[in-house]
Amino acid sequence: MGRALNSRWILGIAVLSVLAAVFWSLHRRKLASIAESTPTVQRPSLPEVELLGVPPGSEVTLDGAKIETLRFGVSAGSRHAVEVRAPDGGVWRQVFRANGPIGLLVELQEPFAEAANPQELGSKEDLADSTEESEPAADDRARTHEAQPRR
After folding, report:
1. What is the DSSP string of 122-147?
2. Residue 110 in 3-state DSSP?
3. One domain, residues 52 and 95
4. Please, are residues 111 and 90 in contact by the beta-carbon 8 Å criterion?
5. By three-state DSSP, how is residue 118 classified?
6. What is the pLDDT of residues 9-59, one digit of tens each?
7. What DSSP string runs through 6-65?
8. Are both 53 and 36 inside the same structural domain?
9. Domain residue limits at 25
């Protein structure tokens, strides 16, 4: 009886081992087929921005960081600031929000002219004298009017 019991245990363990191997093999195939049929999640592409009309040699910054290209990607839906500084001093700034590809036309503002030095213009008294000389006094206008013959 002891031998029969031992052989039954061995036979039961063998059958369980075969069943476990079959189950594992089927489960592995099922996982592989699920992985193949599941679409891969693709990262959304960044909206592309292109700067048009940028003069050669200009410095371009995006959100305060210098960039070397005139076509770049930005995060969708967020506000961004781009600035272009031309070598001659012209500046262009734009704040934008991109949800898709966009093109931005750069129209540089001319740098402001420097004001003349007030010392070069002369004193206020010199300006007042030149103004008085250019405008006839009220008495002079009255005399000119009287001197003309009446018709």
Report:
1. --HHHHHHHHHHHS--HHHHHHHHHH
2. coil
3. yes
4. yes
5. helix
6. 888 888 888 888 888 887 777 767 766 666 666 666 789 999 999 999 999
7. HHHHHHHHHHHHHHHHHHHHHHHHHHHHHHHHSPPPPPPPPPEEEEESPPTT-EEEETTE
8. no
9. 1-41
